[in-house]
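Good morning C.,

I know you're traveling, so I'll keep this short. The sequence:
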Amino acid sequence: MLQLNFPSFPTLETERLILRSHAISDAETLFALRNNDDVMKFIHRERQKTVAEVEDFISSFNEGCKQGRHLAWVIALKENPNQMIGSIGYWRTNLANYRAEIGYMLHPDYWRKGIISEALIKTIDFGFNDMKLHSIQANIDPGNDASRQILIKHGFVKEAHFKEDFYFQGKFLDSEIYSLING
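The tokens, ready to paste straight into the viewer:
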């Protein structure tokens, strides 16, 4: 069975980006991101109501990283590594099947600049070569064409379209599943 044990949090770098661990100092930015209607339009998760709730989320999230349950990075530009502009990472890690779900979000000021694409290349490489994943999946809202297009651009293929499989805020919503297999 797959195990995620890293002696220290794996900071990653690309040409323009630093992918680093979440810090409590990121709480206000993450709170703003998770409460931005444009960012959350296709991310169906309950929103935290206070910065303190986000600080608790970051603490419990970092503990989950240490315990090998998931692994996610803050996206920051190299010229300002302390300023979070988004996040990317692996959630719902299925250790028995060497599979994890990738997810990402980015502040609208940085959309359409290749940031997520650059971060995806690095995290996919890390997922396959360092984490030893066999497959990576992405679960998107079928209305999120931008996310669909970036996944397809990076080799993901559609595995399924589930009808009304997700209940959120009083409605049943559809899901599309995309995957990328190592090999």
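Safe travels,
E.
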